[in-house]
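Lab meeting, item 3. Inverse folding demo.
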């Protein structure tokens, strides 16, 4: 703005004005100049304020524009004063169209009654997470979670309310899908537990069947022997009853090897009883699995247990492979002798199988002795040895290299479990001179 020029002395020379008049005139001009100066300053300040206001307005617009939540600002009567673009987009109507309309009309009819009370409610309270349904541009109801708070002017007077809402339709859909997925997962888990139970039951049955196999074949073998003995005795007695003379009797006794038969009768009956006892024990153990008692651990001598196990393998399978025993007399250990018997039957059976499958001669040696605070036993054979890569798998259930029907792959798995339960270790390795060696150690007990 251009400033007025100060009047010069020649300009002020008016022949009609007195000196006082001239002085008053100068004063008026000066005042006018001062006022003009003030006006200019006020205009500058106003322009600055205006530009600050415009900046604030742009800032608010940008904030409102980037809000994904819905915003409705109302007066005390619930008439819309302002909305944000997110709401305009959802309801499909421009802010100018919504201006001064009642906010509750944006919502589904069943919710309107409740919303109509909001202007009253917010006088004393606020509304939090209230679930209502907005009518969208297509006329569908969109569930929203809404908050409502009162709005005051700079003098603290209530001038309306601010509603913010979040569309929970997506959230609800996601929740429903999650819930469904969770249910399906639970169902699958339930099925898995069931099939795992069935698999455990299958393993248990297979394990018991595996362990029953040896005593049963041992019993079979003994019963066949007893039947043959019975036939020979019958023939001998009948001949005597028919009045055979002494010479005839002696000849027949020699032919039928009655002396050896009578000597063998006791051990065979003893073994048969032992086999029956083992079957009984296994059934007892099976009962133990189903919650019954399994008896308490006892201190026993491992030496006779190994000896009997070796006899079982040799007699039961009718094997021709020799099993040499080198056992210390007293090998006290604590636990269950029946289970240890099972371990040695499994290990010796494996060794015998390996040797008989292997073309060539050889046998099995079982050594057991006390070493330090332990009882150490090893089962060595002259078989083909173990495949080095597969040694880590040996103790896993169902690992077998035997043809179907000849091995379940449970022998070493069961043995490992039993030895571990007895506080011992079981390891497999190849011998430098060929063949395999299974080494077992158990804590030594004080006395038998
Ligand atoms: N002394 C051994 N020499 C060579 N291989 C052995 C020996 N002992 C075990 N194995 C190998 O380990 C595998 C697993 O043995 P394990 O006793 O667990 O099952 P299995 O003998 O095959 O079957 P099952 O014991 O049910 O009759 C055997 O198939 C065999 O390949
Ligand atoms: Mg085996």
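The presenter then showed the designed sequence:
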């Amino acid at each position: 703005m251009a400033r007025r020029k100060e009047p010069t002395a020649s300009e002020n020379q008016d022949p009609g004005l007195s000196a006082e008049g001239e002085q008053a005139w100068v004063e008026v001009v000066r005042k006018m100049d001062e006022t003009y100066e003030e006006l200019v300053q006020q205009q500058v300040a106003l322009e600055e304020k205006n530009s600050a206001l415009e900046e604030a307005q742009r800032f608010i617009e940008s904030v409102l524009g980037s809000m994904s939540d819905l915003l409705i600002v109302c007066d005390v009567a619930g008439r819309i004063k302002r909305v944000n673009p997110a709401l305009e987009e959802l309801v499909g109507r421009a802010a100018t169209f919504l201006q001064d309309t009642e906010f509750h009309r944006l919502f589904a009819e069943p919710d309107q009654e409740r919303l109509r009370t909001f202007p009253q409610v917010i006088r004393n309270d606020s509304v939090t997470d209230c679930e209502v349904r907005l009518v969208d541009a297509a006329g569908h109801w969109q569930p929203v979670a809404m908050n409502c708070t009162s709005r005051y002017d700079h003098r603290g007077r209530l001038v309306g309310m601010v509603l913010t809402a979040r569309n929970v339709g997506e959230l609800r859909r996601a929740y429903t899908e999650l819930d469904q997925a969770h249910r399906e997962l639970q169902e699958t888990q339930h099925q898995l537990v069931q099939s795992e139970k069935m698999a455990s039951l299958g393993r248990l049955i297979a394990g018991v069947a595996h362990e029953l196999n040896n005593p049963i074949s041992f019993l079979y073998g003994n019963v066949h022997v007893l039947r043959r003995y019975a036939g020979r005795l019958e023939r001998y007695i009948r001949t005597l009853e028919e009045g055979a003379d002494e010479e005839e009797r002696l000849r027949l006794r020699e032919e039928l090897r009655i002396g050896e038969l009578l000597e063998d009768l006791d051990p065979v009956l003893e073994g048969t009883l032992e086999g029956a006892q083992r079957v009984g024990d296994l059934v007892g153990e099976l009962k133990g699995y189903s919650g019954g008692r399994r008896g308490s651990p006892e201190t026993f001598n491992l030496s006779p247990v190994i000896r009997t196990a070796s006899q079982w393998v040799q007699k039961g399978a009718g094997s021709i492979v020799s099993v040499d025993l080198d056992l210390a007399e007293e090998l006290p250990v604590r636990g269950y002798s029946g289970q240890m018997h099972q371990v040695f039957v499994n290990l010796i059976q494996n060794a015998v199988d390996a040797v008989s499958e292997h073309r060539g001669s050889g046998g099995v040696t079982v050594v057991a002795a006390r070493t330090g605070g332990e009882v150490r036993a090893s089962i060595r054979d002259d078989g083909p040895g173990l495949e080095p890569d597969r040694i880590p798998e040996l103790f896993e259930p169902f690992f077998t290299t035997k043809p179907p029907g000849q091995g379940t792959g449970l022998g070493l798995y069961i043995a490992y479990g039993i030895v571990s339960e007895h506080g011992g270790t079981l390891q497999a390795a190849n011998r430098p001179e060929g063949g395999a060696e299974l080494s077992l150690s158990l804590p030594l007990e004080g006395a038998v």
